[in-house]
Every structure is written in structure tokens, then in C-alpha cells.
Structures
1.
Amino acid sequence: MNIIVGSNNPAKIAAVTDIFSQDKITGIQAPSQVSAQPFSDAETRLGAINRATYCLQEASGDIGVGLEGGVMYVNNGLYLCNWGALVTKNNNVFTASGARILLPSEIENELNEGVELGDVMDAYAKRQDVRKKEGAIGIFTNERISRKEMFVHVVKLLYGQWEYAGV
Ligand SMILES: O=P(O)(O)OP(=O)(O)OP(=O)(O)OC[C@H]1O[C@@H](n2cnc3c(O)ncnc32)[C@H](O)[C@@H]1O
Ligand SMILES: [Mg+2]
């Protein structure tokens, strides 16, 4: 199958490649049509669906996959959240979310000032391109779970639901 992924972020591409290991994977830049930094579950999920849908509109593929990172409040705590969507040629849409962890209040303050998490993380961790490598989840879990590994879980949830539905 031809799998189109709505991103060129290596952490996202690697996660899809791990799960769709027999298939051809192509990354394209797909607009999420939500904020660059989504701030709720609903917005992050919509970004993933929009990316997946765009993939099959713009490229000839069998399956479109959208993966989107965001943050969301649970009571007073700001959590990292991630969503994935898988869209088939017949317009079946499957969605799944990833692991969540609480972000430190310094990170929350910067995000509330409008800085994107990717940029905040590079400054905070004194590293480059955290978003393409271990991710915020990698930094704050002492690298026990990388951004790729977190997305592998999301893509497995998508793959399994699609397989179960048999569409
Ligand atoms: O090229 P794309 O696919 O857009 O990849 P991205 O790294 O920008 O990722 P998202 O748009 O899905 O994430 C939205 C924002 O949140 C940031 N972000 C989300 N999860 C992150 C993580 O685990 N580590 C670092 N930044 C993260 C990301 O850098 C963006 O600023
Ligand atoms: Mg982005």
C-alpha cells in the first residue's frame, strides 16, 4: 500500500514506518488548519484529521495518516497531548490519542505567551530540534519514552482499529 503521512517530521515518519513496515511511506507537508500550537484535545484531534484527509486529497495513496501534537488543561495542569488519525480512500476515519504527561509551570507560562512548544523545549533543554528527536515527552520522562515511541503507540492504535474494521 501507499501510505501518505501529513508531515516530514522524522519522529512521525519513523513511527509510521515501524508499523506499516511492508508499505511505501511518503511524507508530505500537510496543513493542520488549526493553531500551530493546539491548546485542547478537540483542536489537536481535528489537526490530525485535517492532515490525514489532506494527504489523500493531494497525493495518490491508499491511507492517509495525520499526527498532531498539542497541549490541554486538566483542571489547573497543562498536559502534553497527541492525536493521530487514519483516513482510508473510502473516507473511513479512525482516531486515537497518545500518552499524556504534565508539563512544568515554566513551560506552561511560555506557551501561554504564544511560543510554540517545540521552540520552548529547545531553549529549556539546551538542545536543537527536540521536536524531531526525543520530544518534550522524551525530555520529561528522562528519555524512557521518545516522541517516536509515543507516536508508534498511536499508530498501532490506528492500525489495529482499521484492521478490525476490515475496510
Ligand atoms: O512538522 P510538523 O508535523 O508540524 O511537526 P511539529 O514538530 O511541528 O509537531 P506538531 O505540529 O504536531 O506539534 C504542535 C506543536 O507542539 C510542539 N510539540 C508537540 N509535541 C512535542 C514534543 O513532544 N516535543 C517538542 N515539541 C512538541 C511542536 O513542535 C509544535 O510546536
Ligand atoms: Mg507543526
2.
Amino acid sequence: MTRSGTGSGIERWAGDDPHDARRALGATGLLRAFNDAGVLTAADVHVARRTADVAGEDDESVRLAVALAVRAVRQGSVCVDLGAVAGDGAAGSTAADDAPPLPWPAAGGWLDRVAASPLARRSVVRADLGLLYLDRYWREERQVHEDLAARLAAPAPAVDDALLRDSAARLFPGDAYAEQRAAATAVARHLTTVLTGGPGRGKTTTVAGVLALLAEQAEHAGRRLRIALAAPTGKAAARLQEAVASEIGPLPRDRSLDRPISGQATDLAGGRFTDLDRRRLAGVQASTLHRLLGWRPGSSTRFRHDRSNRLPHDVVVVDETSMVSLTLMARLLEAVRPDARLVLVGDPDQLASVEAGAVLADLVAGLGQRDDGVVAALVTDHRSESAGITRLAAAVQAGDPDAVLGALTGADGVVELVHPDDAAATAALQDELARHALDVRRRALAGDADGAVDLAEQHRLLCAHRDGPWGAAHWNRLVERRLGEASGTYLGAGGTEWYAGRPVLVTANDYSLGLHNGDTGVVVADGETLRAHLGSGRSFAVSRLGDVETLHAMTVHKSQGSQADVVTVLLPDESSPLLTRELFYTAVTRARRRVRVVGTPEAVRAAVGRRARRATGLARRLGG
Ligand SMILES: Nc1ncnc2c1ncn2[C@@H]1O[C@H](COP(=O)(O)OP(=O)(O)OP(=O)(O)O)[C@@H](O)[C@H]1O
């Protein structure tokens, strides 16, 4: 009852080192074979063995199925499709063509055996939709579906039609704003909306207008609108806050909200928003989703706000929804009041969340066929100065490698491809990186915090991997070596860890300090001491910072939710399982003005051709 010969496409780690920590000691049978082959890690095997032993399950194929479900979650999927996993190379075919065949159980009846096993009877695993889930993820996916279905079936929120028409025409005037006007009207008319679009498609502009429009509706009904703006990372929340504030314009000098507003509202910024809009929206703050939901010490999956203690807001806008995991979406949906508007904004073509799930892509796939405007897509590019980046991103999205290579070799100076074997070009790149780091350091040594932060934020070096010759760690060391040579000291790990000009990335939330995972900044000299400046006037003694990384280079995954004027993307070679269309798209769309890709044409083709698919059932549940 085994299949063999299939499955050479499944992603494997090199299982030939007997001391590799991923080796499961004492494993036998199928678990042993799949661990030896580098498909399962020790942790996958351990969980499968423990749960099977407790439940008294001896069937090796069932044990293997559980281990594959654990593996699936580890790799970002919510479930595993046992019928397809054997041939699944979607996440990257790293097995050599001559890798020995794996003893796969026959697909027919495999899931049924798991469904009839004591493990399923004890609800350790769930078979549903022809997929196998670990219980927690099955419950979360069902909850997300049920909460969304209830919201979609609930009566539409009350709106004053004439006022809505007027304010939509005022806030989104003429043909130039027609797409956003339609999207904003859809948001006003629905309890739940998914607002999608790539960079520069006018999502933030739409959000700002929607808030003004809803605030006007609320005031018309004699209420003040309670607004929550949130994003998965601190960086993304800060960007959202800044973008919405700059879109709306500065508050009029008299900030009194209670003062009766007499006469016609003036339009100070000369834009679409009036003083009245600005007053109605005064004080709106963006926060991380964790902060909005009410982080509780010791738990990353339970929050102060939940089904029994809902958020007070009338409208909740979440930006960068592609980064929201299934678990976080489940917590959000149970906390939002059933009658509050929920607007999920994001770019479904970007990499999905670090944790399991692909919620935004699932929402678009599952709800996109509806013709009622629940999914509103913005497609018009409003950033003309970066047309080259838009062309490149569109070609990546379309999965057209020739068009991608064409866009990369265009002569517009906006987009550039550097071959890694081009010694002169890579030396020039290293010189440029060193020069940039030195300029940041000079400002930091002079105590110019704003100047150092601004300059550091202008360029990002993005890598697919953390480790290896094209990994972020290597390039961080390389730039630090060049900085050290120029400074006559040894900088970085093993030398002076904290130095003026060290760009830093915060990698964990610290609520007591107000630090958020994803915050970035620069270490700046302050007399004899060093302080890390994180922008917006926030600074900390470096001794208080725990979880930080050096940011001369960063991984594409960690760059999600942020942008820089100039981005350099280092592609690994084509065999890397991380090299996917979503990773490449996310990397190039971090650039506002210029993007340089360092990689072979083969790596570019591999990236464009490979999808980072995740197994989930949500799209199917939503699509009926
Ligand atoms: N209809 C429009 N006409 C002209 N300019 C526009 C229009 N909509 C937005 N813009 C401008 O285009 C730029 C990009 O818009 P916006 O920031 O709203 O896009 P976005 O989708 O949020 O982008 P990103 O995800 O990159 O932040 C902004 O400078 C904005 O002022």
C-alpha cells in the first residue's frame, strides 16, 4: 500500500548529517524514513509519536499523517492535503532529482484511516473538506469562516444615501477618484469589506476618505464615530498613521472639538478634506493589532478584547492584512462588535503571515466572485515616478519571466539587474553599501539623530535568507567590516556590538517600553553615551534594548509593512526553496523610487515560476 517514486518534488532538508538536530532519535518505520529523507524534522516526529502513543494509535500511515500536519503548520499551511502532499513541490522543490523515492502510503483511503483513528476520535486531528487539520487550526479556520459568514449575512449598516452620495463626490471628486469613490461607497454600505491593491494604488487615500465619510454619517445621526486603525507591526501602524494624517492635512489651529463650528468649513490644505473633516477625525491613532486587542502578559494568542468584551469602535480598519495570521484574524473577528464596520486592507500578492494562514489571499479567492462589492480592488497606479517598478511588479504578479527580465533590463534607471558573477558590479554595490553606512555613521557620531534615521531609511538591502552567502547575516557582517576598517575598530559581533551608526531592527514587542516588532532606527551618539533613535522622537538607551538585529541588511520577510526609496534585492540561487513569486514581488514592491535586483536570470525565472502556496480551507469555506 505504498506509493514510491512520487514526491521527489517535496521540500526536504539535507538529511545526511547524523548529528543534525532535526534528526529524530529512536524513530522507526515510516516516521524514520521520512525523517531520514529530510521531509520531517525531529519536532514533527516527536509530536506525532507522543499524540499517537497517548491515543494508542499504531497505524504507521496515521502517525505519518499527523507528523505531516505538524510539518504543514510549521511551513505556514493551516492543514495538509494528503492526496497531494506526495507530489507537492509548490513550496520549493529542493530534493535532488536522484533523491531516493519515499515510501508514501497510497493516497486512496489514507485520510479515511486518519478520520477513523483514535486520534480523530479524541479530536487531536480533524478531517474536513478532504484535508487534515490539527485541531487548533481547524477550530480557528471554522471560527473565522463562521464569524465572517455571520457578518456577511447581517443587515447592511444604515446610511443616509443622499449624504453618502454628496460626501463621496466631495471626498473623491471627478474621474481621477472614480475607482476610490466606488470602493469607499462599498465600504460605507457593508459591514465587512476587503480593500485590495498593490503599492501606490491609493489604498491609504481611500481609507482616509472613508473615515471622513463615515464620521460625517455618524455626526448626521448624532454620534461621534469611534475609529480603530491597526496594522500587524509597529512599523506598518506608524506608516498608516503618518499616511492618513498627511492625506487629511493638519488640524486647524483651534483644536477644540467642543467648540460649535460656525459658518462654512474652510479648506486649509487646499485638498479634499475640510476643517470639519479634520475636527471629526482629530486624535485618530493607529496601533498594532496586538495593542488594539489588548495584549495580555504571558499569552500571544489571547487578548483582553474577545467575544465577551468587544472592542468599542464603530469602525475597525486593518492595514497590511496579508501579514495577519489565521490565529490573529480569529482573535480580531471575535473582538470586533458584530455591528461595527470592518475594513481589511492589503495586497494579496505579497508574502503571507509568518505564522500559519493566508487569510487575505483566501478572502479574495473565497469572496472575490461575489458581485456585491465586498471585495473592492484598486488597480490604478498613482505613483508615476516609479512606473518601472510598477511594470516589474505587474510582470512578477502575472508570472511572466520574459516580461520580468525585460522590465529588469529597461534603461530607465529605476529598475536594474546585476549579475552576481559581475565582479565589477558587485564590488561597486559593496562600495555603495559601505558609503551609505558610513554616511549614516557620520551623522550618528555628530548626534544628528533625525538625519541618521532619515538616511538609513532611504535604502534597504533585502535578502531571501538569513544565513548563507546571500543571507542577511553575511551582508551585515560585510558592511560592518567595511565600517570597521574605515573607523579603525572592530564593529559588530565579537567586537563593538553597539556603535554610532548601527541601524537596528526591533524583533519583539516590548509593551513596557513601547517597542514593536518591526520598529527600525539608528544608534546615535549622545555625548559619551549611545541611544537608539527609532524615529518620531522616540529614543532609548541601548542597554534597554533586548531583541534587536543589525539592519545593514534584512530578510524580505521582515521588510513586510515597510518601504524605502531605494531597495537592493539579493536573490539566492534558483535551488533555494524560499525563492518564490510572492517573495520576489514583496521585495521589489518595498521600493518607492529605485530597485536593483542582484541575481542570475535563472534565479529570476525560478522566483517568478514558483508559488508559495499554503494549504488552507478558508477560501473554499467562504466560496461555499
Ligand atoms: N485618485 C488619485 N489621483 C491622484 N493621486 C492620487 C490618487 N489617489 C492617491 N493618489 C496619490 O498617490 C500616492 C499613493 O497613494 P496611497 O498612499 O493612497 O496608496 P497606497 O495604496 O496606500 O500605497 P502604499 O501601499 O504604497 O502605501 C499618494 O501620493 C496619493 O496622494
